[in-house]
Amino acid sequence: MQDRDGRSAALVLKVSLFLVFTAIAVFFVVQTSLGARNAAGGPSSLPQDNADRKLGETVYRSLDELLGDLASTRVYVLVPSWELPVSGEVFIAEAGGCLYLTSNLGEVMAVDASTGNIFWSLDLGVWVSAAPTVQDGVVYVGATNHVLYALDAGSGTLLWYYTSQGEILAQPVVDGGMVFFTADNDSVYDLLHRLYALDARSGALLWIYDTESWTPSPPAVGDNAVYSGGYRREVYALDKYGGRELWSFKASNIVFSSPQVVDGMVLFTCIDGWVHALDSESGAPLWSRKLPGFVWLAPPDGSGKLYACSHRNTLTAIALDTGEELWEFTDGVLLSCSSPADGEAVCAFNGEGKAYVLDEDSGSIVGLLLAPNDFTSPPILAGNSIYASSSDGFVRAYAIAVDYTP
Predict the structure, then answer these.
(1) By the 8 A CB rule, do 146 and 170 touch?
(2) Is residue 16 part of a domain?
(3) Helix (H) or strand (E) holding 226
(4) Is residue 151 part of a domain?
(5) Are 229 and 206 in contact (CB under 8 A)?
(6) Per the domain annotation, does 219 fall within a domain?
(7) Chain CA centroid to CA 37, Å
(8) Range of the domain at 62
């Protein structure tokens, strides 16, 4: 343990020294170019010594600001508290201090979030492409063999299963004693999808709705309606209890990400970067906002803001009520963002194993979490821990020090 702490402290020191030396190098490069310009006798609208003095003062101020930012940013090196080998691409859900894992190779397991000990594990022997959903002691898993499985969360025992018309690619949604999921028509061309509503306890079919479209994302469920979209550029609302269409909206482009429902609004994105807000009762447009490239939405956190991640590596905060862009943060290979329980910050995760802790009001960096491994799917932030899968075939838990958490 002492060796591990020593390595962590050494890594923090190296990161800090690297950033400081980088700033100093920038300073000397600027100074060298100034000297070269003086020797060449380049033209200037000001006397040369005054121009150099003004530029030099600007450089010094920039260095002071940079060093001030470095000093105010808290860097924390994440050390795994446990690790678990899992084959294939892994998807994670958390509920009640337990992690529920699925892999694309068909493995499903329940793991103690604090220790990494496996409570139970089973192999479905089929391809699974989404995280499970856990609700009221039941784990729901959809698979490409057309089957939705309901497993006992405590033991992994099969409670019931339902066979749909085609592959189930998206995570099921459970709400109000009902489970909603989509399945395609098992076609290579002319893909369509069917939306199912089942009784969550028995698996009995309640209703189905056939579309002329297709989506790889789960629906969103509100108090009285279910919302979905698809490649035919539509968003539609169905009666939650009967499956009757309530309204539809023609979007600006293909809708492949899952909508979000919050504060009487349905929020969704198109593949061309447009974010739209509709009235959840009528489908009437409320506002629209264009963002860079294909974007997907983080679950609302109650802060009055909507967070959108772009494939062009930009995280944008938007005011929920007006659609006004509040701030944006840019970094390479952004995967997702999550809000800590206190709601005072936003964590932006990237694929290189970094988590930027951002001030929710300004988007400025207030902390940086560095993991020793990459992240291959969006990490789970629960309590004071981060749970993530890596390309080396492990799922790891990273504990965040209580005095660090913003």
Answers:
(1) no
(2) yes
(3) strand 225-229
(4) no
(5) no
(6) no
(7) 48
(8) 2-72
Q: CA nearest 374: which of 393, 346, 399? A: 393
**pLDDT value at 151 more than 50:** yes
Query: Rounded to whole angstroms, how far apart are CA atoms 292 and 321?
Result: 21
If phi over 0 gives left and psi between -120 and 50 gives alpha, with beta otherwise, what is residue 288? beta
43, 104, 162, 376 from 123: Cα distances, Å: 74, 11, 18, 22
Q: How far apart are CA 123 and CA 121, in angstroms?
A: 7
In this structure, is residue 165 part of a structural domain? Answer: no
Least confident of 215-224, 318-327, 341-350: 341-350
Stated length of the chain: 406
> Quick check: 282 and 328 in contact, CB under 8 A?
no
Q: Full-prediction pTM beyond 0.70?
A: yes
For residue range 54-77, list pLDDT tens digits in order: 434 433 444 444 444 445 667 889
DSSP 8-state symbol, 126:
S
Q: What is the pLDDT of residues 5-18, one digit of tens each?
A: 443 444 333 434 33
pLDDT of 340 = 66
Separation between Cα atoms, residue 101 and residue 156, nearest integer Å: 12
Which pLDDT band holds residue 283 (cuts at 50, 70, 90)? Answer: very high
* Residue 296 tokens, joined: 């997907």
Question: Could you give the CA distance from residue 101 to residue 107 in angstroms, rounded to a whole number?
Answer: 8
- Across the chain, mean pLDDT equals 82
**Rounded CA separation 98/117 (Å):** 10
| End residue of a domain, out of 30, 50, 72 | 72
* Total number of domains constituting the chain: 2
CA 103 from chain center: how many Å?
A: 18
Give the mean model confidence (pLDDT) for residues 81-88: 95
At position 397, the amino acid (one-letter code) is: A
For residue 111, list its beta bridge partners.
99, 118
Output the domain CATH number for residue 400: 2.40.128.630
| Structure confidence at residue 158 (pLDDT) | 97
Please, are residues 92 and 389 in contact by the beta-carbon 8 Å criterion?
yes
Residue that finishes a domain, picked among 35, 52, 72:
72
Q: Name 118's bridge partners.
A: 111
- Using alpha carbons, select from 286, 291, 357 the residue that is nearest to residue 326: 291
C-alpha span between 235 and 213 (Å, rounded): 10
**Phi-psi label, residue 404: left if phi above 0, alpha if psi -120 to 50, beta otherwise:** alpha
**Are 70 and 366 within 8 A, CB to CB?**
no
d(CA 177, CA 23): 57
Q: Which residue type is seen at 140?
A: Y
